[in-house]
Design brief:
Length: 305
């Protein structure tokens, strides 16, 4: 490691952690290739760990990282050093698993560092998952769907009740419940929440719509017309007053996987609950429902009618 990178590794840590002895020693040992001799555990013991020995966190709830933001962080690390160490757990004599700090780890790689400062903690898989999720929920700008998925994972994999989860992440039960309800929305709506096309307020209004065709119609209107949350709430109340058409109670044969895939793709494309029916003789039909003349016009326009 060059002298510049050694300085980038440790600069600022002493001031931040009030632990300059550990930081300086960690940097010195890292430069001498004796990282393991200094290794200690705890919140104030900072170790220099080789990036090549760190495995990414398999429990990381964040699935997308902004490349431009990562490059900006990498530039900052080159100028000022990695101010905040990552947190890892030891899995072997020279192997670690990341608990928190994946953005910092990725940016450090982009900056060309080969070693970074890290806290080494002891944790089993469940504790690892819980720490990673809580760290992200409390400190990272997760979108609403990532937050909801994180909450659901903590409930399912850490065996927590909603009240217990609220205590762990410093949120009341109603907030936790509102996030979890987002996971009941159709995938196309969840994608819009994740991509920032509709807000949490819009989503909370949509959750109350039980009819899939109406829900997808409102979702399309939000995106096409930029409807406010209040307008969406009014539209939901208006459409909820209109009874849905009753369908004949029949039990159709289960659709094949291929038919289900086509149905899902068309539902996403038309923002309407498309139904694909295929008989045993290979014949069938495609049904694209609409709930207003405007909605019909939209569908016909997409069909280039």
């Amino acid at each position: 490691m060059s002298g510049d990178k050694r300085n980038a590794l440790g600069r600022g840590l002493g001031a931040l952690l009030d632990d300059s002895v550990h930081v300086n020693a960690a940097t010195k040992k890292a430069s001498e290739g004796n990282v393991d001799k200094l290794e200690t555990e705890g919140l104030k013991a900072v170790n220099a760990v080789k990036i090549s020995e760190i495995e990414v966190n398999p429990f990381q709830p964040r699935t997308e990282f902004d490349e431009q933001a990562l490059r900006e962080l990498a530039d900052s690390i080159l100028l000022q050093g990695l101010i905040q160490p990552v947190t890892v757990r030891k899995t072997g004599s020279r192997s670690y698993q990341l608990i928190s700090g994946e953005r910092r780890l990725r940016a450090s790689k982009l900056a060309g560092l080969t070693e970074i400062p890290a806290y080494v903690r002891t944790a089993n898989d469940q504790q690892m998952l819980e720490m990673a999720l809580i760290e992200n929920i409390q400190r990272e700008n997760l979108n609403a769907i990532e937050m909801a998925l994180s909450f659901q994972r903590m409930i399912d994999e850490c065996n927590l009740k909603q009240e217990e989860l609220g205590d762990r992440v410093s949120k009341n039960r109603s907030t936790v419940t509102n996030y979890l309800r987002l996971l009941k929305l159709p995938p196309v709506v969840q994608s819009s929440i994740r991509d920032g096309q509709i807000s949490m307020g819009h989503a909370r209004a949509l959750v109350n719509v039980e009819d899939a065709a109406k829900l997808l119609y409102i979702h399309h209107q939000i995106i096409e017309k930029g409807l406010s949350v209040r307008k969406v709430e009014e539209l939901v109340r208006e459409l909820q007053k209109k009874p849905a058409k009753k369908s004949i109670d029949t039990k159709p044969a289960p659709a094949s996987f291929h038919a289900q895939k086509i149905q899902a793709d068309l539902t996403s494309k038309f923002n309407s609950q498309v139904k694909v029916k295929v008989g045993q003789n290979g014949k069938g039909s495609i049904e694209i429902p609409f709930i207003s003349e405007d909605d019909l016009g939209r569908i016909l326009e997409m069909l280039d009618w």
